[in-house]
Specification:
Blueprint: E1 14-19, H1 24-29, H2 33-41, E2 51-55, E3 61-67, H3 71-75, H4 82-85, E4 91-97, H5 104-114, E5 129-131, H6 139-157, H7 165-178, E6 182-187, H8 190-193, H9 197-203, E7 211-217, E8 223-228, E9 230-234, H10 243-246, H11 254-269, E10 274-284, E11 296-298, E12 304-306, H12 314-327, E13 332-337, H13 341-347, E14 352-356, H14 359-371, E15 376-379, E16 396-397, H15 406-415, E17 423-427, E18 431-432, E19 442-443, H16 448-459
Parallel strand pairs: 1-3, 1-4, 4-5, 8-10, 8-13, 9-10, 12-16, 13-17, 14-15
Antiparallel strand pairs: 2-3, 6-7, 7-10, 11-12, 14-17, 18-19
Helix pairs in contact: 5-6, 6-11, 9-12, 11-16, 14-16
Keywords: Aminopeptidase, Hydrolase, Manganese, Protease
Protein name: Leucyl aminopeptidase family protein
InterPro entries: Leucine_aapep/pepB (IPR011356), Macro_dom-like (IPR043472), Peptidase_M17_C (IPR000819), Peptidase_M17_N_1 (IPR048816)
Length: about 450
């Protein structure tokens, strides 16, 4: 998890000037003649992502200038400073001018995230430029967020050969030990004895045993339970996926990775709340004892489920975990899962669609998503679609036919296992398809920073 943190301020830190295109000409005219000539020679205009070094009298870099673009170009991107950070030569930089105070925290975080490298299997060149934390921000809090995001990325990026249910449990155990959290794991056949039949059924065909990971931390404040889908690889089961659809299925535990990364942020920040994290960790594999289309299963809650597609397994394992979460009567339950392709068709890979009917939570989340550069999009728990998940032969259908509203019907399915408690479900993608500032191609957290801000507000006096 190589991730550069903020550099210590020193006398040798190079000044970094941030210039937007709208004010560039005025700024340029105020520079000494030799600096102006250098800027002109390199055709620097303040465009978003531009970065140039400014030489000192001895010819070595004495500082740097980066472009901040226009309102329009910034609206089309995130982590604007990160776009230039990777282009700067080796050294430590301290922001001298041009960064709006209200953007300092997010832009500093983007710089740290731009330095993430996944080097478990191949050496990766570290980012050369280090940043001194801008004045006025909580550097430790920003670093805690960056470390949580790095954990999420590492877990998703690791292939299933090294990230099965056992390794996911190990990651949770390590996190618990780091923060003095309590953890309990229910393994294999004990899932049946403890009444988690859906988790056991989905995971029983794999050689690595299914399990339920239950982590608790904190003893005061709001009681928040996070539930993350931990399907470490999804073949589709007997409804086998085609090869192209299976290529990214190492990321089908992205919900679990996201809640573990968020838990890291919460615990490292010391938020005064009572946290519970539940992760049903399984592989959806194919063998002689795999569950079948047409099977009818009884969930922990007692609701029966007809299996019309074994590739709709995520909602099954989440159902048992959500039922357990509800039994504890927390103040809020949040589930996160790479659940449906329909969500990607609806909003693409960059937005985190979510479902929630609690007006206070929705308002808080929407505001936090804006300030944290962590976009979300509200989707409806559309109750008139409830008949689509009722097959007649059982209480619920895990894969309604017809193909319409696939993300909504999956969310409605999950809602059947939560009663009374405010509930939010996030149908995330968990993957960055191509390199972007602060977000290299690969695993990525979604909505976690926005949720962290919401939880901080909920737990404040």
């Amino acid at each position: 998890m190589p991730l550069p943190l903020f550099a210590d301020p020193t006398d040798t830190a190079r000044p970094l000037h941030i210039v937007d295109q709208d004010s560039f000409e005025t700024w340029r005219e105020a520079q000494p003649a030799e600096i102006g000539a250098w800027i002109d020679a390199l055709d620097f205009k303040g465009a978003l992502g531009q970065a140039i070094s400014v030489p000192g009298a001895d010819g070595t870099p004495a500082g740097a200038i980066v472009g901040f673009g226009t309102d329009k170009s910034r609206a089309r991107a995130r982590f604007h400073l990160a776009a230039a950070a990777a282009k700067l030569p080796k050294g430590t930089y301290q922001i001298a001018s041009g960064l709006p105070e209200e953007m300092a925290e997010v832009e500093a975080l983007g710089w740290l995230l731009a330095g993430y490298r996944f080097d478990r299997y191949k050496d990766q060149s570290p980012m050369a430029a280090a940043l001194v934390a801008p004045g006025g921000i909580d550097a430790n809090a920003v670093a805690a967020i960056a470390m949580g995001e790095a954990l999420t990325r590492d877990l998703i990026n690791t292939p299933a050969s090294d990230m099965g249910p056992d390794a996911l449990e190990e990651a949770a155990q390590d996190l618990a030990a780091r923060h003095d959290a309590r953890i309990r794991v229910i393994l294999g056949e004990d899932l049946l004895a403890d009444n988690f039949p859906l988790i056991h059924t989905v995971g029983r065909a794999a050689h690595r045993e299914p399990r339920l990971i239950d982590l608790r931390w904190g003893d005061a404040g709001p009681r928040i339970t996070l539930v993350g889908k931990g399907v470490c690889f999804d073949t589709g089961g007997l409804n086998l996926k085609p090869g192209a659809s299976m290529a990214l299925m190492k990321k089908d535990m992205g919900g679990a990775a996201a809640v573990l990364g968020l838990a890291q942020m919460i615990m490292a920040s010391g938020l005064p709340l009572q946290l519970r994290v539940l992760i049903p960790a399984v592989e959806n594999a194919v063998s002689g004892n795999a569950f079948r289309p047409g099977d009818i299963l009884t969930s922990r809650k007692g609701l029966t489920v007809e299996i019309n597609n074994t590739d709709a397994e995520g909602r099954l394992v989440l159902a048992d975990a959500l039922a357990l979460a509800q039994e504890d009567d927390p103040d809020l339950i949040v589930s996160m899962a790479t659940l449906t392709g329909a969500a990607r068709v609806a909003v693409g890979p960059d937005l985190a669609p979510y479902y929630c009917d609690d007006a206070d939570f929705v308002t808080r989340l929407e505001n936090a998503a804006e300030t944290q550069a962590d976009p979300v999009w509200r989707m409806p728990f559309h109750t008139p679609y409830e008949p689509l998940i009722e097959p007649g032969i059982a209480d619920l259908d895990n894969a309604p036919k017809g193909g319409f509203a696939g993300s909504i019907t999956a969310a409605l399915f999950l809602r059947r296992f939560v009663e009374q408690t405010p509930y939010a479900h996030f149908d995330i993608y968990g993957w960055q398809p191509s390199d972007a500032p602060g977000r290299p191609k690969g695993g990525v957290g979604q909505a976690t920073r926005a949720l962290l801000r919401v939880f901080a507000e909920m737990s404040s006096p």
